[in-house]
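Bit of a strange request maybe. I'm writing a small parser for structure token strings and I need a real example to test against, not something I typed by hand. Could someone generate the tokens for this chain?
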Amino acid sequence: MLLSSPDRSQIRNCKDCGKEIRVFNTLQNRCRDCTIKRHKPIKQRGPKTLQWEKFRDTVARPHLDRRDGIACHKCGVMPPKKEDGTYYRHDVEHTKKRGSHADLKFDVSLMVYLCRDCHIEETDTLRSAKIA
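Reply from user aminoacidic:
Good idea to test on real output. This should exercise your parser:
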């Protein structure tokens, strides 16, 4: 049912649920609730990120566990324990940065574990060096 009002809006029925809605353009044909239900989430991670995560979890972390253990390479702190007795994981960091050595991205001999604090310190140092 289309009714016009003085503010140039119209009253229509939602295409999905039939609830009356006030529309301000000719494209709107669903109520807010039905629009949200139909919404598909935007992919947040691309194929390269998924490839890196798979490599990190299946190749790099087991290699680093055998080679160096699970402690931070820089300060030696152990990651915190979970309730089930296993450990959380530190970040995997490249010793040669990927921006200048993109071909070495998947070279496990150039990777180390860093705790979150050391990792933030390392990346902040790099960012401030680029800015200066």
